[in-house]
């Protein structure tokens, strides 16, 4: 107040070092100011953007008329910060003038005092005290001399065993006794020590060379035609060619045989280093939310396929123990949602997707990332469309532009309008645009969602054909109720009608009972196209799939006899709007030649099945129920994932074991882990190294397996959380950045940065 030209400024240690204004070094209480060029401050704002300490005063700096700004050190924080800037030339000149006058007065006062100080020294007896306190050695030093007869020098030595008790001199007993040394009372003494550093004067003379005139010829010196003919016909040239042509032939042959520029040292054991490189997962960010994630476990985590820094997660209710029964009513208050966060605004949510029930799993569509499909714990399949909010998600990314004075002025003008929009940190709530009909959906939780390739589609006749409509997407879901369902995505018009009907239902719920609704009910139920039943009628065996892995099915379906296929595949009826297939539906269908028709299913009954089928014809014409069935995991399979580098290699995790399988090998997995002490809860392949994958455990550890180093135990492990790891999701947005999202049972999402050792594959990996 009273100084409008003064603006308090907080300078961090980095800014103080850049502009040479560090307290007690560059600026002190006596020399408390620094003149900084206006151009240097603008360049700092260009380089560091909003991270610059001068960014809050951009407008003041740009409007300053002078070339240098006065920055004053304020050690007592008179204006609220450790520095302040003077924003007018008049105030700057007044400050410098008053400082110069104060400096002159101080010099005059100190000059008078120095004249009074210079007096002759008079001894008051202090030298005697120094002499008394000097340290002198009073004790006589003891000297020892050890000698040996010269003839024994270098004599051989022989050692023998002998009982120490036979000879008195060979054995000496050290009995305990009370030492009087430690009972002496030490008196306090004042001892003074004066140390003076030794000074040396050293000079050095550099070698000086005389300047010389030198010239360089840059035009080629050419011989005349007569000189060229004379040189070519000379005997000296003939003798030289005769002497060296054999060596030249040998050298040319060697160049043809081997590459002389090949570096053999680089090719020798490039991965074998003397010191093992550090392998670690560095903490990057942590996400949690008190409203949506308290007392809940994270069930699924997915990265946005195209927008950098956007990550989504879903949460569900934690399994209730006997001690947690009293908290059941509190858990019912939680909303069922999918939360979308951004790296650049980690403090608040960007988008919240509302769901009818807790989400067990969800997936972004690979061809249209604005479409999200999710499976609920009650078996429903839900669809969201976030295309309206795509620009909001993209706007969270910082854009690096060249900062000019004009751009800064434009930014200052727009700040007033942006502040009102950014003041509200409430996320956008998005309704689901489609939900499956309860009579025709899964009876248990939908445990996995997989999108089909966008160039294929299934039809209700059980066939696979090319999808020419780019918006007609399809997906497959599985559930422990022994069923696999294939879904067709509703059109945009159907999704909009679904949302409008949901809004009408909410309005009807709040309408008085005496008012009747005149709107007609529209059938907007979402029903599956095909249902695969995994029950064996012969043995009454049920297989409850928890994970499914589909291959890219690049083929078309054809039938052998139309009459038989119609009997085998019952058409849709009012009771069943989908085509249901079982193990007997494959007897009248013809198998495809030279075509792989397998996909893999991990079951709840701890069996890993390879079902020989394509999407339309589930079982082969020979009537076999399974091509192969393996009982390896003693608990439910929680991970079944194909390798991102090999189409026929996949990883399965469940219980206390994991295994790596290869399609076509029928005698079991190609790699099987031993039974661990704890449980494996989730697994994930590395996106950059074929031989690396990550395993989450129930004790909060992440096991890092590098098959090039060890196959019997993890090469490294790291503790991430105090609770169980529930989901792992990797992401590689660039060649320099690689992230691993790890979720735990406490509702916390950890974003870890993967080190370069785990990201750079070897040449032959």
Task: Record keyword descriptors for this entry.
five-stranded mixed beta sheet, alpha+beta, Methylamine Dehydrogenase, Chain H, 19% helix
Map the helices and strands.
Layout: E1 6-9, H1 13-18, E2 33-37, H2 38-48, H3 58-62, E3 68-73, E4 83-86, H4 89-117, H5 126-133, H6 225-232, H7 235-257, H8 264-267, E5 281-287, E6 296-303, E7 310-317, H9 328-331, E8 337-342, E9 351-354, E10 359-364, E11 371-376, E12 381-385, H10 390-395, H11 405-422, E13 428-430, E14 434-435, E15 448-451, E16 456-458, E17 464-466, E18 474-479, E19 483-488, H12 492-509, E20 530-533, E21 535-536, E22 541-542, E23 545-549, H13 562-568, E24 579-581, E25 598-603, E26 608-612, E27 628-630, E28 637-642, E29 649-654, E30 657-662, E31 671-672, E32 680-685, E33 692-697, E34 701-706, E35 716-719, E36 725-731, E37 739-744, E38 749-754
Parallel strand pairs: 9-13, 20-24
Antiparallel strand pairs: 1-4, 2-3, 3-4, 5-38, 6-7, 7-8, 8-9, 10-11, 11-12, 12-14, 15-18, 16-17, 18-19, 19-20, 21-22, 23-25, 25-26, 26-27, 28-29, 29-30, 30-31, 32-33, 33-34, 34-35, 36-37, 37-38
């Amino acid at each position: 107040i009273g100084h409008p030209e003064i603006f308090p400024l907080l300078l961090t240690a980095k800014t103080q070092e850049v502009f040479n204004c560090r307290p007690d070094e560059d600026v002190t209480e006596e020399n408390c100011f620094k003149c900084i060029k206006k151009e240097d401050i603008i360049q700092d704002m260009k380089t560091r953007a909003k991270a610059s300490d001068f960014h809050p005063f951009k407008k003041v700096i740009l409007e300053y008329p002078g070339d240098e700004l006065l920055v004053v050190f304020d050690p007592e924080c008179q204006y609220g910060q450790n520095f302040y800037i003077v924003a007018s030339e008049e105030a700057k000149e007044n400050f410098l003038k008053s400082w110069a006058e104060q400096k002159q007065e101080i010099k005059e006062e100190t000059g008078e005092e120095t004249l009074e100080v210079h007096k002759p020294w008079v001894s008051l007896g202090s030298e005697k005290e120094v002499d008394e306190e000097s340290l002198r050695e009073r004790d006589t030093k003891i000297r020892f001399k050890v000698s040996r007869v010269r003839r024994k020098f270098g004599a051989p030595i022989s050692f023998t065993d002998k009982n120490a008790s036979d000879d008195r001199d060979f054995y000496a007993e050290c009995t305990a006794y009370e030492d009087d040394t430690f009972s002496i009372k030490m008196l306090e003494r004042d001892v003074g020590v004066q140390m003076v550093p030794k000074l040396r004067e050293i000079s050095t003379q550099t070698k000086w060379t005389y300047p010389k005139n030198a010239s360089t010829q840059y035009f080629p010196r050419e011989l005349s035609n007569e000189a060229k003919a004379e040189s070519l016909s000379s005997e000296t040239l003939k003798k030289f060619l005769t002497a060296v042509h054999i060596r030249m032939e040998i050298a040319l042959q060697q160049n043809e045989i081997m590459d002389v520029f090949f570096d053999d040292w680089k090719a020798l054991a490039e991965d074998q280093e003397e010191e093992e490189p550090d392998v670690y997962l560095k903490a990057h960010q942590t996400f949690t939310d008190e409203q949506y994630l308290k007392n809940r476990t994270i069930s699924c985590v997915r990265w946005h396929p195209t927008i950098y820094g956007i990550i989504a997660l879903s949460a569900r209710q934690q399994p209730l123990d006997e001690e947690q029964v009293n908290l059941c009513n509190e858990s019912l208050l939680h909303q069922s949602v999918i939360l979308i966060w951004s790296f650049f605004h980690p403090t608040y949510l960007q988008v919240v997707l509302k769901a009818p029930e807790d989400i067990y799993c969800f997936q972004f569509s690979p061809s249209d990332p604005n479409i999200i499909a999710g499976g609920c714990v009650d078996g429903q399949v839900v669809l969201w469309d976030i295309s309206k909010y795509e620009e909001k998600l993209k706007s969270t990314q910082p854009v690096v532009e060249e900062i000019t004075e004009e751009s800064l002025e434009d930014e200052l003008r727009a700040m007033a309008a942006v502040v009102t929009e950014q003041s509200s940190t409430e996320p956008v709530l998005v309704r689901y645009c489609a939900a499956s009909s309860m009579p025709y959906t899964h009876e248990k939780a939908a445990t996995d969602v997989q999108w089909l390739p966008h160039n294929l589609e299934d039809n209700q006749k059980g066939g696979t054909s090319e999808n020419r409509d780019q918006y007609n997407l399809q997906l497959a879901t599985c559930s422990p109720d022994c069923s696999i369902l294939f879904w067709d995505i509703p059109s945009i018009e159907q999704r909009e009608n679904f949302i409008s009907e949901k809004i009408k239902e909410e309005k009807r719920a709040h309408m008085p009972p005496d008012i009747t609704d005149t709107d007609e009910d529209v059938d907007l139920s979402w029903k599956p196209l095909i249902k695969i039943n995994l029950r064996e009628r012969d043995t009454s065996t049920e297989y409850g799939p928890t994970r499914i892995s589909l291959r890219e099915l690049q083929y078309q379906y054809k039938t052998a006899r139309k009459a038989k296929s119609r009997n085998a595949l019952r058409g849709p009826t009012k009771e069943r709007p989908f085509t249901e297939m079982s193990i007997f539906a494959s007897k009248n269908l013809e198998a495809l030649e030279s075509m792989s028709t397998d996909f893999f299913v991990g079951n709840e009954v701890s069996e890993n099945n390879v079902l020989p089928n394509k999407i339309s014809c589930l079982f082969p014409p020979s009537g076999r129920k399974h091509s192969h069935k393996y009982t390896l995991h003693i608990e439910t399979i929680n991970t079944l994932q194909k390798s991102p580098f090999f189409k026929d290699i996949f990883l399965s995790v469940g219980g206390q074991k994991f295994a790596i399988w290869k399609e076509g090998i029928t005698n079991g997995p190609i790699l099987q882990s031993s039974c661990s002490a704890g449980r494996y809860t989730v697994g994930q392949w590395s996106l950059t190294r074929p031989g690396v994958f990550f395993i989450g455990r129930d004790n909060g550890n992440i096991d890092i397996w590098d098959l090039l180093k060890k196959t019997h135990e993890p090469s490294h492990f790291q503790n991430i959380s105090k609770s169980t790891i529930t989901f792992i999701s990797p992401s590689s947005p660039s060649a320099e950045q690689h992230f691993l999202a790890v979720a735990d049972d406490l509702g916390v999402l950890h974003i870890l940065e993967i080190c370069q050792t785990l990201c750079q594959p070897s040449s032959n990996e």
